[in-house]
Amino acid sequence: MRYGIDCDGVIADFHKGFARVANKLWPGRIAPGDEYPSDWEWASRGFDPDEVIRVKEEIAKIPNWWCSLPAIGHNVGAIFRHRLRYPEDEIFYVTARRTDQVAGMPMMHQSQRWIDMCGIGGLGTAVIVMDGDNKVQLYKELAVDGAVDDDPNQVKLLSAGYLLSTPWNTDASQGKWRVKDLDEFFERVGRSK
To answer: Are 115 and 121 in contact (CB under 8 A)?
Structure first.
């Protein structure tokens, strides 16, 4: 089987990394445990659009920042267990990160290193870094049996697309395609075949 798995918000904790940088710029701005906004723009945490841009500009200056993101442990663990049980399956890690706004190693290298540091890389996996936001076409071209993302726009048009439930996407449709974690994702995709 073939799987498409988004990185940021699914297996890599972008929000904790964002909070770390925001607190560097404005000490104490985001309290521990308050790193998960209920919206994509961080407005629920009191940020205006210019402040979000400021944090992202600061992120772009930090060498190898993408390698420093914490793992979302239970989801990384689900992939690790799945790879042990089904080593012949293929996993495509797909991320839409701006490759022109990165310090240190190229974005592809940072993404690959992060996957390897988590122990979920290796034979049967690939990392795909996109500058654009349309993963749907890519998932179709890869002929994945299932794809999971935290952005509803990246999976809702796929018959095998699943939305990972997060605080920032609670307003998205509650259809058959919502999963609570990657254990449920692998189980549901497996049942559909």
So the answer is: yes
- Domain ranges in the chain are 2-13+67-192, 14-65
Beta bridge partners of residue 96, listed in sequence order: 130
pLDDT digits (tens, 9 = 90+) for 145-184: 999 999 988 888 788 999 999 999 887 766 668 999 999 9
Q: Is the dihedral angle over the CA atoms 104, 20, 99, 135 positive or is it negative?
A: positive
In a 13 Å sphere around the CA of 141, the CA atoms on its Cβ side amount to: 7
Instruction: Show Cβ contacts of residue 16 under 8 Å, excluding neighbours closer than 6 positions.
Output: 35, 69, 70
pTM: 0.93
- Alpha-carbon distance 46 to 139, whole Å? 35
Q: At what angle do helices 73-85 and 182-192 cross, to 10 degrees?
A: 40
- 2-13+67-192: CATH architecture: 3-Layer(aba) Sandwich (3.40)
Q: How many CA atoms lie within 13 A of 146 on its CB side?
A: 21
d(CA 39, CA 22): 16
Q: Which two tokens stand for residue 190?
A: 């497996």
Q: How would DSSP label each residue in 38-59?
A: SSTTSGGGT--HHHHHHHHHHH
